[in-house]
Amino acid sequence: MRLIQLSFASRLVALVAALSVGATLMSSILLSWSNYRAMLAEAEVEGESVARLLARSASLARELPLEVEQMLSQHMIVSAELLAQFVDAAEKAGMTSAEIKSRLSAITEKTVLDEFWVTDEKGYAYIHRDNNADFQFSASAEAQPQAHEFWKLLSGKTDAVVQDARKREIDNERFKYVGVRGIDKPRIVQVGYNARILEKVDEQIGLPRAIDNLLGSGEIDAIFVFNKDSKLIASPKAARLNNGRDRLTDEELAPVRSVIASGKPRSVNGAGKLSVISPIDAEDGGGAIGAALIRMPTARLNSALASQIETALGIALAATLLGGGIAVWIARKQTAPVVAITKAAHNVERRAFSAGELSDVEERTDEVGQLARVFKKMALDFLDRERTLDALVTQRTQALQERNTELERLSARLSKYLSPQLYGTLFKNKTVASISAKRKKLTIFFSDVVGFSEMAERLESEDITRMLNDFLNEMANLALAYGATIDKYIGDAVMIFFGDPETRGVKEDAVACILMALDMQAMTRQLERRWREQGLDQRFQIRIGVNTGYCTVGDFGSQERMDYTIVGHQVNVAARLEQSAAPGAILISHETMTLVSDAIEVEEQSPLHVKGVSGPIRTYKAIGKKTPSMTEAIHEEREGLRVDVDLLRANKDEAISLLKATIERIRSSE
Q1: Full-prediction pTM beyond 0.70?
Q2: Quick check: 531 and 538 in contact, CB under 8 A?
Q3: Band of residue 435 on the pLDDT scale cut at 50, 70, 90
Q4: Burial degree of 179 (CB within 10 A; 0-12, 13-18, 19+)
Q5: Which of 80, 235, 327, 367 has a CB 3.0–4.6 Å from the CB of 180, allowing a cystine?
Q6: Quick one: 552 exposed, middle or buried, by C-beta within 10 A (0-12, 13-18, 19+)?
Q7: What is 1-191+300-344's CATH number?
Q8: Which ranges in 534-651 belong to alpha helices (H)?
């Protein structure tokens, strides 16, 4: 999308208006923020007041349940001693254990007691209110974490044991137990009381009741109280009833621990509510003993903030209108000479500038007048230099075109003497020729025309030249088609390698080289037939040698003339393979065979002894490209003989008949 381009005057007006609006909005925002922070501070003060009230409620919540439990402990001790007296009297009167249990059950049903246990001198409870099973007291704290404390009554170390109300291990019910020693003999007389009433005391007198009373005013939505370990110990009634609206959020819970540690209040504002988290300090000044989270509605705060924003927007609008009028007046006054200079600059661009164009602006004595005078001098100098430069550019362009044409002719001639890869590396990639070399694994190809010297003596020079050029041209086309690098022509011999400056991989290069060699042998047979049709009845065959190994490849020569070629022992081996190959055959080394055996059909030949190599070199004859199944085709080639039968396409009866006729002709010619 194309942006609208504003003039200098428009930008100046916009700048003044933006500055006016920005200053007004910034002042309004700062004022609103200040008022907002003041209201937050007021809310935090209210939260601290509620926290102090909750601290007093917490103190009361701790004292009253303790006093109630102490009174209950005295009552249970008296009840246990009465039971001990009754058991002593009943056993002396000859009552059985079952009769005593029945009488005690009837008595305790009319009291606050829920359980009773009476043991013998070994701690075995044979009289109890539990209908499930008897109970054996133990002195082991590991076996009986709660009941073992009463074992001291059997040893006579104490007359009574009073336990605080706690949750039992067997059912997690909160119970209070009291025990006394026997009257007539060592025994345990224990009574138990379900302490649910103590929890009701906490709820009716302690923090929960204080929280519900504070919420009745309507100015506070919810209050949550945490102990020193950040554990929730009191909450609104709605939250205790699992009402989702009054649940704590993760944003509210996160700062609780830091408030308890630092003793400083914090606030969390979000989702239409303001939560103030204030520490609850101990009455003795011993630091924070917990924290209170007071959640208040933010309707009042949001209303005040919205009113201030509306006021700020009104002031900003008025400032915009006033600033815009002032900016228009200033812009018209200040931009007139700038517009004139801009118009003059456009005229310079169109080559239509005149010397008197800025005469009115030049008369000014300020910076704009000085700018107009400097611009006029610069424009006149520019136009004069441009005319001179145009003439020089025209002259140089013509010279460069002539030079470029000469270089293109030279490049075209040079491309015929270099391989396409080397030519592209030197000219297209801007590589600077230098004397350098590198060691790489390459596949080397050598070929030679069989009996070329005798052929050259028998044929006319024009015929031998045409034959050799046709042959080398076809060889070059095949080499380039397979991505090979033509190293050099040595008379009728050709040296080619794969793997530099471009490579597809060592194995892929080797396969490509053998496929190229097979096509070259087929190509020579086609040339031979074509020349025979042209009247040149001359046998034309080539022998080929291929080897794969590490060679040194690069630029060799002097600073004045260099040659891009390969050297090394593996190059010599490839040349020896070519010299040892039969006419029309392709002889390859064992290294090359291992790379191409899955794609090329080969036949092992006699080992080759090469000077400088300690042992014989294993050699193979490349026969042809492997087909999916060798039973689908017959391919045999010997000196003066070649048989090719496509078993999938040929008529087998016709092929057999033709082969038989050929055999008869061979026999009759003997």
Answers
A1: no
A2: yes
A3: very low
A4: buried
A5: 80
A6: middle
A7: 3.30.450.20
A8: 569-580, 590-596
